[in-house]
Amino acid sequence: MHDSRIDQLADQLTGYSTGVKRGETVLIDLYDVPDSIALALVRAVRARKGIPFVKINRSRITRELMIGASEEQYETMGKLTLDEIKKMDCYIAIRGSDNITESADVPAKQMQLVMKAMRPALNHRVGKTRWCVLRWPSPSMAQQAGMSTEAFENFYFDVCLLDYKKLLPAMKALKRMMDKANDVHLLGPGTDLKFSMKGLKSVVCGGNFNIPDGEVFSAPVKNSVEGHITYNAPTIYRGTAFDNVRLEFSKGKITKATANNTKAINAIFDSDEGARYIGEFAIGFNPHIREPMRDILFDEKIAGSFHFTPGQAYEGETDNGNRSQVHWDLVNIQRPDYGGGEIYFDGKLIRKNGKFLAKSLEPLNS
Questions:
Q1: Which residues neighbour 103 within 8 Å (Cβ) at sequence distance 6 or greater?
Q2: What is the distance between the alpha carbons of residues 359 and 95, in angstroms, rounded to a whole number?
Q3: pLDDT 10s digits, 194-241
Q4: What does pLDDT average to in each consecutive run of 10 residues of the chain (366 residues)?
Q5: Cα–Cα distance for residue pair 59/36, rounded to 1 Å
């Protein structure tokens, strides 16, 4: 029996999230997902008089290509992908996976080659198209979340079909607050971090970039970050699991990085010069997402969290000039059950233990 929530999701992605219009080209980029969502998206694009294009990817095949990647091969792939995305007005990607560590054994050198070659296409997609990226529920994701398959599917559709429009006034109030802020101070267990956001604007993410959504992001002035931070949400990057990540900064640069796999994390930060600088600072507040599950599209939106991202900055008003093949959203949860924490803007306490203090921001409190 067809699940009507799939049609609701396709309608939300093509309508509210990307706003497909008559005659616009839409790339539907699918990884390890069932035909049902592909069909629903094609039909939803056509219902808006758009022109759908579909790419079908498989993670095991992608892994095999990366393991034997050559510079010539991926230079060509990068150019082809960039040429393709330049012809698109909108981009919708749905990424499923039976194994989130599928690429764990891809050598670091090969991974760096691939990321470098594909970065121009990614930058164009982020900066020049209306885009939305999301996961697809699977038994492996349910296992990550510690839930039954059915319970996780229900959770997935609850968070993805959230009425984001209802939260927009409070999100915009947070944006105004972040836009005015010059100095930021983050405090919590293992965290005492200061940086400037002077001259940089912020962006509201209310269901129009990622699904699930629920964050406002900006970036620090590149050389302004000082202090140390401990991330209490487990993470996976390039197929490798990391826990207890701790970073120390001086003049914006990561001078010391430790984790359960210190050698591997430093190999990532040595990918290029920009990998040791921060490209994004974001505050998360999706009320339905409470616990980390090593999936960043969910974890970066956790209620009462923030993420502080080594690597590439987003182009646009939040761009602090940092360039890297790395973009790693690492998450710190500041609710009392995770040890608490505080966010200050220009010396004023904005959020304490995951709760915003200003009345205009109260709808963002879980």
A1: 59, 62, 63, 66, 111, 238, 239
A2: 37
A3: 999 999 999 999 888 888 899 999 999 999 999 999 999 999 998 889
A4: 91 95 98 96 98 96 94 96 97 89 88 92 92 91 90 92 91 97 98 97 90 94 98 92 97 98 96 96 94 91 97 91 95 97 98 97 91
A5: 19
144 Cβ contact list (under 8 Å, min separation 6): 100, 293, 294, 295
Name the CA radius of gyration of the chain, rounded: 20
**CA distances in angstroms from 247 to 84, 136, 266, 325, listed in the order given:** 38, 32, 11, 19
Q: Return the H-helix or E-strand segment holding 153.
A: helix 149-160
CA distance 203 to 213: 12
CA atoms within 13 A on the CB side of 41: 25
Residues whose CB falls within 8 Å of the CB of residue 70, separated by 6 or more in sequence, listed in order: none
- The number of CA neighbours under 13 Å toward the Cβ of 37 is 25
Beta bridge pairs of residue 30: 56, 94
* Tokens 């219902």 found at: 47
Cα–Cα nearest to 202, from 159, 229, 173: 173
Neighbours of 35 (CB within 10 A): 9
Phi-psi region of 91 (alpha: psi -120 to 50; beta: other; left: phi over 0): beta
Question: Taking a C-beta distance cutoff of 8 angstroms, is the pair 292, 333 a contact?
Answer: yes
Structural domains for the chain:
4-160 (3.40.1830.10), 166-364 (no CATH)
Q: What is the rounded distance in angstroms from the CA atom of residue 158 to the CA atom of residue 136?
A: 13
Structure tokens, 339: 């040890």
